[in-house]
Amino acid sequence: MTLDLRRLTPDYGVAPQIGPEDLAAVKAAGFVMVIDNRPDGEIAPDLQSDAMAVAARAAGLEFVINPVTPGQFTPDLVARQRAAIAAAGGPVLAYCASGNRSTILWELVHAGRLSVDDMLQTAAQAGYSHEQLRPLIEAFAKT
Q1: Which one of 37, 48, 74, 128 is CB 3.0 to 4.6 Å from 123, fit for a cystine?
Q2: What are the tens digits of pLDDT across the range 120-143?
Q3: CATH homologous superfamily of domain 6-107?
């Protein structure tokens, strides 16, 4: 795999699926935590969360499992992502199949804290068009 790292902020980046071989580069890029937003049922055993957790910790990275089924963004998932980011103590890299779900989670974590327009622009600059998610982000801002 080729690491396709996209920084949304200095402290939060997203990537399509990563593999154990990418973790040294993730660490070298300054990240302290990796969040796996991909359900194990989508991927081969060598990339599933338990295997990735072992590899991440061996590389000196914290590892959090917060799988998201496409389109299933619940308040609990958002709260777990927010808690992981807060506990990281440094930059976080979140990944899923394409980086899209991890970007949506970033938007929902910051709903009501950052401008929706600014977040949508940041996502677009990273290659993710989320204008259709404006109502969802605005709904999370009210919670």
Answers
A1: 128
A2: 999 999 999 999 999 999 999 998
A3: Protein tyrosine phosphatase superfamily (3.90.190.10)
